[in-house]
Amino acid sequence: MTTAIAVTIAGSDSSGGAGIQADLKTFGALGVYGASVIAALTAQNTQRVTAIHDVPADFIAAQIDAVFSDLAVDAVKIGMLSRTAAIEAVAEGLDRHKAKNIVLDPVMVATSGDRLLASDAVAALKRALIPRALIITPNLPEAAALLERAIATTEAQMEEQARALLDFGARAVLIKGGHGDSVEAVDLLVDARHVIRLAATRIATRNTHGTGCTLSSAIAAGLAKGLGLADAVRAAKDYVTAAIAAAGTLKVGHGHGPLHHFYSQWRES
Predict the structure, then answer these.
(1) Catalytic (active site) residue 214
(2) Which domain holds residue 81?
């Protein structure tokens, strides 16, 4: 029996709620071995991002080569890449190692509202990474920013924007409605042939730090374990919903607290 392996290529969150740390927690909670390529360091907590230190592009490439030359990677999650040089290094590394099952979370703004992607890097993201992705997972503001449109306010507009994003080259788009204000939190999984509506009751909580990171890494975990894309997305949605529901049992920080990635394991112990 082989070990399912996923790698996260993203930024580090010093407070542990998002980024690399959230991804590795998610992989572990879902039974997948996690490896990492750190593309940026952030000085961050539950309230704000105070500083970003970019990892040089050649060192990002060295990490990719080290991981992929030794580990049989089944899926890749890509998160925060703040600069054009980092985006290009990742794209070249993915091609060099023929990476598969690429999940791209186009992280642009932190939960706190702090910008994480340089404005001049958006074009590089569209050109170099979106076409290489099996699925991209933008929230409503990210989808609008990528398309230079107003934020979608209806499911019809969400579907329209998801279809427009498909034109950038990704094979599927999961457009996330967590920033909406309806009773349900509705996500739409859209590809060239299908639209799948994924709904969950909206949970009233401030503990949403790392939600997008967790969802995309949970999708990668499902793909690494051999699930089809739709099943991986459904399982990820269920996991994130439960992790948000359990987040109130954690007392972490004074701002937007983290999800409870280990709600199942901690409860059992």
Answers:
(1) no
(2) 5-268
